[in-house]
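Researcher: Next sequence.
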Amino acid sequence: MKLHVPVSTILKVLIAAACVWGLLRLIPSLILLLISLVLAVTLWPLVDRLERRGLSRSVSVGLVACGMLAVIALFLFLVLPALANQTIELATNLGAYRRNVQTRLNPDHPLLARLMAEVFDLPSAPEVVHSLKRPLALGQVVLEFSIAAILVLVLSLYLLLDGKRTYAWLLAYVPRRHRQKMAETVPAVSDVVEAYVQGQLLTSLLYGSFAFMVLTFFRVPSAIPLAVLAAVCDVLPILGVIVSTIPAALFALAVSPFAAAAVTALYLLYHALENYVIVPRVYGRSLRLSPLVVLIALIVGGSLYGVLGAVLILPLFAAYPIIEKIWLGDYLSDEVVADHAELAEAAASGEDRAIDAVLQGEEHPSERIAIRESG
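Model: Next structure:
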């Protein structure tokens, strides 16, 4: 039996393969575009607020751009020099710090010794050594990062200037029968993204400042790099506390065992305070994610695109209830939508009543009210 494949089918397969190949090649550029979009969504309310005060769109975006440049300039002139000096000092004295920590470690705890070795051996890892041996490797990394940062800044400003027109142009591809749903989805998802970015910036700043004060108080070496590490790691829920606490505790051990124990205890205490007091107040009900969902998001995002993917995927997971309510409500049963809504409310309030009701198949009060109204 001869297999006959039409030429049109072969062409479609080749075109699809070419599109997939092109998409894979464009992933770094798409990531930059996504970061720019997230930044533009975060700054959009500020631009709208300036417009309501009588300023034009271009002037409002210009003022926001000047504010962003002022923040960057403050970081470059106030933080970067001290950060660079302490980082160089850390690299120069790393061997001395390691020997100091080794003398204070209890030989009966080999796990701590191995953990210490892993941390202090990180700068001499084969990947790092290979990168540093390449000519101008560090300069190339700095140049690429600077170009990417400038592109993100410029793209976000253009999105703020011309975002509505671009959105309308893209919306033209959506059938008119679905545009009302899009009109509901975009603002709701934008609110989630805005709350996530603003809340994360605030919590990272608070954690970095707290870490700097604690490390400075106990005279831990390289306090600024460790504080910056803490602020960056705060972006990663659950895993961030581990990654930021271990180096801080080890370098505090170079001062004294008491300093190491105090730094560890204060870091963990702060994270408990952040999880149960600061985060609920900062994020409110805009970003309700259980620890299990956060872990799943980190695994999925990290598998797709490393740490950056793990960070960017969190607001997408948080926006799923909006997508389900607006787009999947017609395909899912009313019971599914009602159960998920009740479970979301229970997650926000910390109650288990709705969980027990779902497990036992009971009707929720909102369902009973809807049945009476429809009847």
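Model: The CA atoms of residues 136 and 326 lie 51 Å apart. The two ends are 62 Å apart (CA to CA).
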